[in-house]
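Human: You know discrete backbone vocabularies at least as well as I do. Show me how you would write down a chain together with its backbone fold. No explanation is needed for now; the record alone will do.

Assistant:
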Amino acid sequence: MAKMRAMQVAQARAAFELVEREIPQPGPGAVRIKVQACGVCHSDAAVKEGLWPGIQYPRVPGHEVAGVIDAVGAGVQGWKVADRVGVGWHGGYCGYCAACRRGNAFACQSYTLITGLTSDGGYGDYMIAPASAVARIPERLSAVEAAPLLCAGVTTFNCLRHTGAGPGDLVAILGLGGLGHLGVQYANKMGFRTVGIARGADKEALARKLGAHEYIDSTVKDPAAELKKLGGASAILATVTSAEAMGAVLGGLGANGVLMVIGAAGPLPVNLLSLLTGQNAIKGWYSGTSADSEDTMAFSVLTGVRSMNEVYPLERANEAYQRMMSGQAKFRAVLTTGN
């Protein structure tokens, strides 16, 4: 049997190890993807550190996958060998459960698949994906450019377009890291009056380069008060992993404003009176389906939004992961296979 390389996690809290495996075969309704690039995401810690209940080891992580279809399983329609495709966190859906039938495929009840978590992902030369999880990559995006858009990109873009904010409305991006640096770009290109919020005066130049019209240094100013001075935010996109930081901006919402949470954090301190008097809301946002990923990539091509990436060969996954987890990566880490 033909062999492939993969960087797997043998057990919780183990280092990534380079192994040789048989190249998998796609079953009915699935395709095999020859991986060209795979982003390293903070959510990969769920596999690396054993944070997700029921993970089966060994597991190959990776849910920002870009590559080319090189085999098609029985019954697959609409996809063929040589198609350039990507796969994100959303690993497919059944199409017949109650959630799917009501248009909520992201919450599929009977086909719960998460790429690189409940099935092997893109830290390898090949992977298998259900056809419902596959997104078409535009020709004007390279594999390295496309990979981060399949999680970090779709999560921020898809969230922002569902905030209810309109062109000219004040929208704040909390955090300027792997998610936030894309969020600022998307907010600007969507026509929002964009505010970047981060720690330190040194972040201001980056925020404005990315498209922020205003910048708030949360180490010297009260971000909620500053947002109120600007008129109050229609939406705040919280990309950080600090519940305390989220709580500190909540009072900056304008009337009917919403705090959109896409960064996982602990218990959130909430002033309920502020929520009541402003008719404000706090909402979590899931990344998106394969169709949302295609929308994200199309919008990125149209408007010139790109992720800022550090690129590593597959065998340096441990180094790339540590760079990402330490916050030192500027701003996404991407593994390449050489395929």
Summary: The longest strand covers residues 30-40.
